[in-house]
Amino acid sequence: MNLPIWNWLSRNKLKFSSAIAGLLLFYIVVGFLILPPIIRHVAVKVLSAQLDRQVSIEKIKINPLALSTTIRGVLIKDKDGQPFVSWDEVYVNFQLSSFFGHAWVFKEISTSKPFVRVQMNKGGTFNFTDLITKFSTNAAPAQVKTESKPIALRVEHLHIGGAVAAYADFSPRTPFKRTLGPLDITLDDFRTDPDNKNPYAFTGTTDAGEQISWRGFFYLSPLRSEGELKLFNFTLNKYAPLYQDFIKFEIRDGAIALDVNYKFKLDGTNLSASVNDTAFALRDFKLGAPGDSNNLAELPVFGVAGLSADLETRKATIDSVRAEGAKAFLSRDENAAINVVELSKPSVPNAMPGDGVLLLLRSVTNAVAMLLNSTNQWRGAVNAVDFTNCAVHLEDHVNSRPARLDLTEISFAAKNISNLPGTNLTAELSLRWNKNGSIKTIVSASFFPPTADIEVDLDKLDLGSLDPYLEPKVNLFILGSEVGLHGQINLTTPDNVLPQVTFHGDTRLDNFRTVDGALGDDLLKWDSLQINGIDANLNPQSVKIKEIDVNGAYARLVVETNKTINLLNALRLTNTNSVATNETKIAATTTTTTNSALPQISVGAIVITNTAVSFTDHSMQPNVNLAIRDVNGSISGISSEQLQHAVVDLHAKADGVGPIAITGNINPLNSTQTNDITISVKDMDLTPASPYAGKYAGYEIAEGKLNLDLNYELVGKKIGFQKRHHARSI
Asked: How many angstroms separate the CA atoms of 679 and 709, rounded?
């Protein structure tokens, strides 16, 4: 009785199984064999029509059992026939669990050797601008939709291998081309869940050997990310086409490296971003002028380390800034054009940067404007600056004689550079001035409130390099000079009063020698000029000098055969009868005004040792030669105070024999005080003045001695004197 029923059930099971098997076979056949060529044909046709470009697909492979799809040999050509987008293979593996859960799950999405080509044309359009215009024009009007949850998506493994991006910019005068790749991008366990941490990694190189590394993680809601970006060996001169149209200089060498650790969060319209422990390096930088093999600037090593900045707190710090071996060559030509300024001008009049660079500059400008418009002031600090073995070479060809100055062995170190109140800055600067001179300064300062203590040490500075600047005013050459200055400058800013600046120290000018610019004869020189014990104050204005020492000074006065005087020639004062111009009148008025507002001045003593003056008159035949030697003595107690008189006590010898004494009381800084001066000459030989006697008196002097006593009283412009003279043995 049961057998027929069993057979009936068996026949139904067999039919059901056969149906299932048939459907499965159909599913497999359609998936493996039928759908791939159909999808390939339709995709090529639709994409070609939509993109207005030639599209080809080599093969599509579908595995209906693994729910995976492979697309191979995709090529989309641009309108100029060049490849626009392509890849060797794209593989997508969809998970069956997606049909039973909320999230769409992909086990793997990978692509092999994808390629994209971006081209900027003249006028600022891209090679895909037509696609943007087309799809933005044909897009349906946006409809107001209620907020819904984003589609849940999960990708267990996403990998892009061997990616290449080609960029070409034809807006500059010389087209710029760069290829980025091959690049490798890996993203594991990607989810669109708001709190899911999505790690990623990105590495690649360019056709110039530049390296890129980018890794970190991100969240989608709200959008936030944290990671590290590294750029290495980016060669600057490879990007010359981008900037060559609006600068004249050329970057001949140089490579940069960058390591950025960043965080950012975008929550609605609120943006917070920060960088931490960021480093920047520039090496082997060289800059020059086209057509000149010499470099204008060289920077072998430059680095910034430990850069941290926070957009929300408006605070930035830098651990260290370092440079080594930097060199700069600055010059000014006959037309007062400075080389670096001229080279910074556009190489082509009204030239503009390429459209790609212009877009980047606008982005940077907008970012800077956003920071400047912030209501909170930025606070910053640089913990350490260290520049070593730097040099600056200066040349100036404005005057007929070029001025040259070499500043070498420049070292600069500073700590705690900051605009934070209460921060104390310390800095040291040292350099070599030409061959033998040196400058050293030590600074301790604060910006809020402004205070500073500066120690200055100048030693053996040669002024000969700068004497061409005196040429419009004087006609002389400085053959030797050693300037020294040792002192301390102090700045304080008490409340509700002007800043107070004081200086205390000594200065000197040793081994000074000048010669006549016309004949090259000695004009003025001395072994040593020292100004000791200087105390200067800016508020109130006052200058106190303990002592001025002049040692081994020599002055030579010469009357030439044309009756001009060498000193007046050197000072370009030969034409003293010229009509005063408006400029000279204004200068005279300014001088008078300035003199009336002189600060309080006092000089303890001027000590003169072993000084000499010679006089030669070539207009007389025979020539007249006179000399005053062994000038010694002092002028003590000089002061601008009303009742203060300086005591003069000077002694010398005329031609080494006749003694001369100048004594008295003077006040050179006050025009209303009486100046009482006595000049005494004993046994001065008159024979050197014989040519004058022969010319003007008709008799030459064979021998004779002169004794002379003069007493001058000078008050303002009024002068009175008494004299007593005696000549013997004439």
From this structure: 6
Q: Which position has the token pair 């037509």?
A: 130
* Radius of gyration of the chain from its Cα atoms, rounded to whole angstroms: 44
Handedness of CA 241, 242, 245, 246 (dihedral sign): negative
Q: Where are the beta strands (DSSP E) in 192-339?
A: 198-206, 211-220, 223-235, 250-267, 270-288, 295-310, 315-324, 327-332
- How crowded is residue 481: how many other Cβ atoms within 10 Å of its Cβ? 21
pLDDT at 591: 46
pTM of the model: 0.78
Looking from the CA of 338 toward its CB, the CA atoms found within 13 Å total 7
Residue-by-residue DSSP string for 480-534: EEEEEEEEEEEEE--TTS--EEEEEEEEEEEEEEEEETTT--EEEEEEEEEEEEE
Distance linking the first and last C-alpha atoms of the chain: 182
Q: What are phi and psi of 149, to 5 degrees?
A: -70, 140
Question: What is the SS3 assignment for 371?
Answer: helix
Identify the DSSP state of 467: G
> DSSP class of residue 730?
-
What are 381's two structure tokens? 């600090």
- How far is residue 317's CA from residue 306's CA, in Å, rounded to a whole number? 8
Tokens of 20: 């299932």
**H/E element holding 370?**
helix 355-372
Alpha-carbon torsion angle 484, 487, 489, 490, nearest 10: 180
CA distances for 302 relative to 320, 429, 432, 588, angstroms? 11, 18, 22, 51
Asked if 376 and 314 count as a contact pair (C-beta separation under 8 A), the reply is yes
Sorted by sequence, the CB contacts under 8 Å of residue 548 that are 6+ apart come out as 529, 530, 531, 532, 603, 605, 606, 607
Q: List b or e across 81-103, with b for residues whose CB sees 16 or more CB atoms inside 10 angstroms.
A: eeebbbbbbbbbbbbeebeeeee
Mean pLDDT by 10 residues, the chain (730 residues): 56 69 77 87 92 93 89 93 93 82 84 93 86 77 56 84 90 83 85 79 85 87 88 88 77 94 85 91 93 92 95 90 96 91 71 52 56 63 96 93 94 91 90 95 88 95 89 87 95 83 96 88 93 91 93 91 84 59 46 56 92 88 86 89 78 82 80 77 79 75 78 66 57
Which of 186, 190, 178 has the alpha carbon at shortest distance from 161? Answer: 186
Is residue 219 within 8 Å of residue 193, measured between CB atoms? no
Rounded Cα gap, residues 552 and 530, in angstroms? 12
Q: What pLDDT was estimated at residue 562?
A: 86
Q: What is the DSSP letter of 580?
A: P
What is the number of residues in the chain?
Answer: 730
Please give the C-alpha separations between residue 419 and each of 76, 416, 496, 501, in angstroms, as whole numbers.
Answer: 56, 9, 21, 21
CB 112 within 8 A of CB 163: no
Cis peptide upstream of residue 222 (ω within 30 degrees of 0): yes
DSSP 59-87: EEEEETTTTEEEEEEEEEE-TTSSEEEEE
State the Cα–Cα distance between residues 431 and 407, nearest whole angstrom: 6
